[in-house]
Amino acid sequence: MDVSKPYSVISSPLDVEALLVLRRTTRPLTGRDVARLANRGSPAGIRKALARLTSHGIIRAEDAGRAILYTLNRDHLAVPALEVLANMRTEFERRLSAEIGSWSLQPDHASLFGSATRADGNTTSDIDLFIVRPAGVEEDDPVWREQLSRLADDTFSWTGNHLAVSEVDLGELRRLRRERPSIVEDLLDTALTLAGRDVQHVLGGRQ
């Protein structure tokens, strides 16, 4: 670790990719193994990241014949920061569920879907929310609109991404179940339920 700049231990997306792979196991892995299991990066890029991380001590490297075996040094001071990075998605989902759970007007259903759950979005991607307005609540109900507006503001504060809300009432939901537009398949494939009934029950499952 560079004691003058300890924050420089994790300095690139490939550093994070390599560390997340090693975090998931206690078994020593070769550089080729780490590159194969990483979500991004070339083998050469991952090898460079592993070498740099080894120099900072957060990864331990051991010669094994012609190969080098890598393990995460779980005693390193930077590992708690890695845990925070690794758990950001879970924390975001927890915050969304908690915020929606605090609403005075509860949705019949709310779920994340699309790139937010496929994990293929980026800094410019909207975060897609599918929400079913409860019976007896009009679209322009001021309490309902304030809840959604607050959630959009919170989402941007937490992530820097805009919230894109696909909102339907129970009548429109019946139409979706009957007509099966493409959003239904997207929801069935990717939706993560945050509140209310499970998405498979709400949309009637696959037909």
Quick recap:
It contains ten helices and seven strands. The chain is α+β, with helices and mostly antiparallel strands.
Order of strands across the biggest sheet? 6-5-4-7
Annotated CATH architecture of the largest domain: 2-Layer Sandwich
C-alpha geometry: elongated
Q: How far is the first residue's CA from the last residue's CA?
A: 56 Å
As for the CATH topology of the largest domain, it is Beta Polymerase, domain 2
Q: Assign a percent range to the helix content.
A: 40-55%
Q: Please trace the helix and strand order, writing H or E for each element.
A: HEHHEEHHEHEHEHHEH
Low-confidence stretches: none
CATH class placement of the largest domain: Alpha Beta
Strand content: 15-25%
- What summary fits the major beta sheet? 4 strands, mixed
Number of domains: 2
β-strand number: 7
What is the rounded Rg?
22 Å
Structural class: alpha+beta
Number of helices: 10
Describe the fold and architecture.
The structure is a single chain. The protein has 207 residues and is an alpha+beta fold. It folds into 2 domains: 6-84, Arc Repressor Mutant, subunit A; 87-203, Beta Polymerase, domain 2 (2-Layer Sandwich), CATH 3.30.460. The chain is 48% helix and 17% strand. It has 10 helices and 7 strands. It has helices spanning 13-23, 31-37, 43-55, 79-86, 88-101, 115-118, 142-159, 170-179, 182-190, 199-203, and strands spanning 29-30, 59-64, 67-72, 109-113, 127-132, 163-168, 192-196. The protein has a 4-stranded mixed beta sheet, with helices on both faces. It has a 3-stranded antiparallel beta sheet with strand order 1-3-2. Helix 7 (142-159) links the parallel strand 5 (127-132) and strand 6. The termini are far apart. The mean pLDDT is 92.
